[in-house]
C-alpha cells in the first residue's frame, strides 16, 4: 500500500513538472511580429458623437 502511494506521488510530480515545462515552452518564437501596413482611418464614420447627433 505504501509503495502504491509513493508511485502515485512520483507520477503526480512528474505530471506537474511536465505541465509546467510545456507551459513555459509553448509559443516561444511562433508569434508573428506586429506590423502596420496601412494608416488608420475612420472611413465613412461621422466625426461627432452619436449622443450629440440625436439633438
Task: Give the secondary structure arrangement, pairings included.
Blueprint: H1 2-25, H2 50-53
Share of helix, binned:
40-55%
What is the approximate shape? elongated
Q: Count up the helices.
A: 2
Q: End-to-end distance, in Å?
A: 79 Å
Give the total of beta strands. 0
Structural category = mainly alpha
Radius of gyration, rounded? Answer: 28 Å
Average pLDDT metric:
78
H and E order: HH
Query: What percentage of amino acids are in beta strands?
Result: under 5%
Largest sheet: none
Low-confidence parts lasting 5 or more residues at pLDDT below 50?
A: none
Describe the protein in words.
By secondary structure, the chain is mainly alpha-helical. It contains two helices and no strands. The longest helix is centred in the first third of the chain and has 24 residues. It is elongated, with a radius of gyration of 28 Å. The chain starts with a helix and ends with a helix. The mean pLDDT is 78.
